[in-house]
Amino acid sequence: MRSKFEQTVYLEAAQKGINIAYEPGTIPYIIAHDYLPDFIIPPPPKLKSGKYNMNYVLTNHEKYIIIEVKGKWDYEDRRKHNALREQYPNLDVRFVFQRPTNKATKKRTYGEYCDWKGIKWSKSTIPQAWIEEAKRLSK
Fold it and tell me: How far is CA 100 from the centre of its chain?
């Protein structure tokens, strides 16, 4: 057992004749978070409230390129983007890194990590090709 307290509780349950299983297996769950993209090209339609209609983006994902601008790309942020790609595989999320040669893991830089995951990325600026692509998609 992982702790003395767990062992104490387990032994107490056993002494009381309670049939108990210790860490019998995992139960999958999804951590619900809201994702706030840095930029979207072209801008989506606005709602009456003045906010952008993100449901429209999810429904019409093929018309948009989402741009994330990163100086530091830590584990938690990579985890968030991995979950986002799993839950919304058709969203086109791309990264612009300040320093793509920074280490994401022991073996991979930010750029190498993106290449490994099949994510489009750029150094320092949004490439003109992405802007042209967004123009073509929005027609």
Answer: 18
Report the alpha-carbon distance of residue 139 to residue 134 in Å, rounded: 9
- Asked whether 110 and 99 are in contact (CB, 8 A), the reply is yes
**Model pTM score:** 0.75
Residue with tokens 């890194």: 97
Sheet (strand 93-97) strand order? 39-41, 65-70, 93-97, 121-123
Beta strands 65-70 and 121-123 are unpaired
Domains of the chain: 33-138 (3.40.91.30)
Torsion of CA 129, 133, 135, 139, to 10 degrees: 160
Mean pLDDT on 121-132: 91
User: What are the tens digits of pLDDT across the range 106-120?
Assistant: 999 999 999 999 999
Whether the Cβ atoms of residue 59 and residue 74 lie closer than 8 Å to each other: no
CA distances 5 to 1, 19, 26, 114, Å, are 9, 18, 21, 42
Q: Do the beta carbons of residue 72 and residue 101 sit within 8 Å?
A: no
